[in-house]
């Protein structure tokens, strides 16, 4: 048995059948299980399927929409062929070998669906001038050669996001308080804040990509965007995997050139932006200081799981 064209929510399957009697085969029985589920759960009786019964079609057969397949999930699959008898019973073959496979990440098709949903609630934009990153004091004291280095993104957000566990970067924030226009004084990540002028990370030589849209069983929604200097390792990773955004006119994070040549920046008001910068950042380019607010751990998104029931930020494919 062979599987082809495995995506986040579908696959093609084919197998070798005996030539004799092949023209009398009327149905395929397909048994699919998540790999971690050790119970075989085949058929209760030989003629009462608990899984998929499909009419016989030329192989390979596309399997899509029969299950709510999740991306990045390991499954096992086995098949039987069957001939429906005049009395309604099935004459079935032996089970095939069991094949293991893993569904794929979201493609740009699914990410564009997420992007449209995120754009619908982004709201108006507000001006900002700095990116900032909060951590414990030791993080900045231990920074290698006084530089913050990219690390692999955790598994927070959409399960099918192609950046989780793969893209290397540094998380920054840029959200501001509506009444002050400044970064908030509270943070879930630590009482010390590195702050850097926005144009040092985001300028005409920076590409911007949409990475994810999710929530964590709360009314807050998060949008991840990726900033990658043109031609960098991170930029090469993102090309073809993530939807590219227009640098000056997208509704999440924009950079526009003014008449005097200076750059102005705006961020979406109604979502919490998480900005991933893909390259090392020298601490000498900004300042580190202690914030006066609280460390709100409940707002941390570290390895946070997306709410699969939210109709605002989920698409119909996987979770």
UniProtKB/TrEMBL annotation:
Cellular component GO terms, alphabetical: cytoplasm
Domain called Fibronectin type-III: residue spans: 1-106
Pfam assignment, any one: PHYHIP_C
CDD domains for this protein: FN3
Family stated for the protein in its record: Belongs to the PHYHIP family.
Protein name: Fibronectin type-III domain-containing protein
